[in-house]
Amino acid sequence: MIKITLPDESVREYPAGITGLEIARDISPRLAKEVLAITVNDQLYDLHRPINEDAKIKLHKWEDAEGKHAFWHSSAHLMAEALEALYPGIKFGIGPAIENGFYYDVDTGEQTITDADLPKIEKKMIELARQKEEYKRREVPKQEALQYFEAKGDPYKVELLSELEDGTITFYQQGNFTDLCRGPHLPSTAPIKAIKLLSIAGAYWRGDEKRKQLTRIYGISFPKQKMLDEYLQKLEEAQKRDHRKLGKELELFAFSQRVGQGLPLWLPKGAKLRERLENFLKKVQVKYGYEQVITPHIGQKELYETSGHYAKYGADSFQPIKTPNENEEFLLKPMNCPHHCEIYKVKPRSYRDLPLRLAEFGTVYRYEQSGELHGLTRVRGFTQDDAHIFCRPDQLKDEFKKVIDIIFYIFKALDFKEYTAQISLRDPDNKEKYIGSDENWEKAEQAIIEACREKGLQTVEELGEAAFYGPKLDFMIRDAIGRKWQLGTIQVDYNLPERFELEYIGEDNQPHRPIMIHRAPFGSMERFVAVLIEHTAGKFPLWLTPEQAVILPISEKYNDYAKNVLNLLNNSDIRAVIDDRNEKIGKKIRDNELKRIPYLLIVGEKEAGENLVSVRRQGQGDKGVMTIDDFIKFIHEEEQKELAQ
């Protein structure tokens, strides 16, 4: 007999070899129908896999991330089975579950799969799912596994197998399809009731541009058709909000092949939006005692070797820049922190000088493969709202908590109501990924955990998600349609101060090492603006929007009055424009509603004669007639309300 500890800490005894599905049946027949996977001593198992020793378990249903993972991973295998049936000779790369759904990378050889083929593949998947095929796990010796895939002519699986150790290899089979896989999977295909294949893309094998480009097919599946319908409705809304589409319509940013992939061009309206975001944060930073600095766009390669960034991220940097002096090499700046360390070293520092808070909207450059680029969310040149706080050990927690306050203020001002705070820790089983001593890592991790506890912040902890130089607190927000984005990060770093030999003279007149806090509430201006566009559907808060009002003269006769109104508004710090096209007023209203300008001011004979404006709110209709002074006062009050919420 073995002891099984349930999540409520109750213990049940079962014969060795019991499965998760049998435990679920023992607890409740209904649970057995709903359960999809099981965690056994922190390892995710199939429900049919025997448990042979005492264990803590947790059973996972669809509502759990682990349940969805097993469901979507199994769906990827189901798609592969359908592809093999429809396209004999197709070769398979990898087919994982992802945050929303799954994909499989395939080599179609001489055959071609297009969007038009997706319904046919979906139909085959449903047909196979209805056969309720069991997912069977089998441990396989390495030599046997190699022979199987060599005989099948599947070179990608052979390559993956060559890197695995004998005794760690498992096959999964359902129906006529067998795959190299760690699992876990569903007990059978029966729960997969609704399937939608979403798109096709190209993907280099193992992310290497020098390797063959495979066909990547994305899909999603659900246990009920209603769930799929709701998801597709959300997807349609997400497409309407796509920042690439809205950015073009609202004339915020553009890309040019001549300038280069992943290098955004900020248009006048987009530049105004960015400028207002930067000024908003700068005002907050002044309040919290930050000093603004500016550093160059390039730095000597040696700078990034000292920091450790080059060893970790050299492959993702642009190639070094050569100078006429053969001994000199520079890099486009991939991050700001080494430059700020050098600013700290400009003069001797005393314990009285700390904390020193250095802030910079610093543009950095990192090489991303062309297939990974995506609008503003994945670019090759981006501006970080970066700051580095150099402090004493006794100041660390207070400084960390003040940064949390800044991030919450930003979330409130921009109406991000739902968030998760994630403490990203070092992977204790893979310490070679990180720099620095165990002692410093433990101190840094403990400082973050204690600071969050003292702020009363609910957090989740994730192993292996730390930066290479230190642990961090990451904020994941949910946008207006429920999608998760990582925005805002605070990192504790004992290691860069050591590598740069930073010091301050303490009260004891002896040199001491400061601690460094890295922080970026926005993360990057590009990514933050992309998320903001999609969160608001382009309807920005009044205090932030590039154009707060548009003046619409009813006819050319009132253009001069419209210009007078414009001058009065602009002189009162209200961002306004005129639409003086020779068009009917109805068309002007419709066109400017689409531009998402909050207020439309219509001026005609009555307004010109009495110094008035007729006010319409975007999406809400007529708001009545106001004097120009009243409208100015109204706008300023609205802005203050938004920022004070």
From TrEMBL:
Substrates-to-products reaction catalysed: tRNA(Thr) + L-threonine + ATP = L-threonyl-tRNA(Thr) + AMP + diphosphate + H(+)
Alphabetized InterPro entries for the sequence: aa-tRNA-synt_IIb (IPR002314), aa-tRNA-synth_II (IPR006195), aa-tRNA-synth_II/BPL/LPL (IPR045864), Anticodon-bd (IPR004154), Anticodon-bd_dom_sf (IPR036621), Beta-grasp_dom_sf (IPR012675), TGS (IPR004095), TGS-like (IPR012676)
Domain Aminoacyl-transfer RNA synthetases class-II family profile: 242-541
GO cellular component: cytoplasm
Location within or outside the cell: Cytoplasm
UniProt: Zn(2+) binding residues: 337, 388, 518
Residue span, TGS domain: 1-61
Keyword Metal-binding: yes
Cofactor descriptive note: Binds 1 zinc ion per subunit.
EC number(s) stated in the UniProt entry for this protein: 6.1.1.3
Coiled coil feature spans: none
Subunit structure comment from the entry: Homodimer.
Protein name stated in the entry: Threonine--tRNA ligase
Organism name: Thermophagus xiamenensis
